[in-house]
Specification:
Layout (H helix, E strand, L loop, with lengths): L6 E4 L13 E7 L5 E7 L5 E8 L3 E3 L15
């Protein structure tokens, strides 16, 4: 189960936002029942790239042993 402010990892590309699988976002809202989440994705300087409504099957928890990887955002 996901909670607000959890960090999550995309499992699939969302090219319309310039997001790729393995990009990291933050849960900003959990819809009733937890079947869908609002997830915000930001650049390293804090600019919002997108806020997506995603099903829980479209992401995974970041996990305690994850490592961040930085890439340049390519505009959609």
């Amino acid at each position: 189960m996901f909670h607000e402010f959890d960090r999550v990892v995309l499992l699939h590309d969302h090219l319309q936002y310039g997001l790729l699988a393995e990009d990291v976002g933050t849960v900003v809202h959990v819809y009733l029942g937890g079947a869908a989440l609002e997830v915000e994705f930001v650049t390293t300087d804090g600019r919002t790239v997108g806020v997506l409504t995603l099903g829980v099957e479209e992401m995974r928890p970041l996990g305690a042993h994850g490592i961040f990887h930085v890439r340049e955002l390519v505009p959609a």
